[in-house]
Sequence to fold (152 residues):
Amino acid sequence: MIDLDDIDRDLLRALSRDASQSAGALGRRFGLSQPATWRRIKRLQQAGIIAGRTLDLDAEKLGFGVTVFLGVKLATKGRVSLDDFERAVTAIPEVQTVEHVLGMYDYRLRVVARDLSDFERVLRRRVMTLPGVGDVEANVLLSEERRLGPLG
Fold:
């Protein structure tokens, strides 16, 4: 772990809000030169604190108006490898995230669909046919707030 100063934390907050900002713009905002800002960002990347930059797409504007969180309990833990389940579930295009969790369910999936009937198709034809699937619980997303993370 590396020591972070206030400028490092400010850079991380700014990049977590908008990762497309240039080193020059960030430097001007925080009183640094472009090369000094770039070096700090590079150091944070090399330390693994910045693990990557992602593009945040608006699923609804792309025609996917329904998001459902699925809790999936595997029926036969001993007979089905977790790797087999994970490999199969990540091949489903509507599944955005696959999280192996501790608790009532073994996995938490974030699934997008065009509408509820499209979701039912994904559930019946794709999710329920995965190796080892037992109990499934669905929670439809009503609204979502963006959380910026531990640095706020």
User: Anything to note?
Assistant: Residues 66-140 form a domain with the Alpha-Beta Plaits fold (CATH 3.30.70.920). The chain has two domains: 6-46, 66-140.
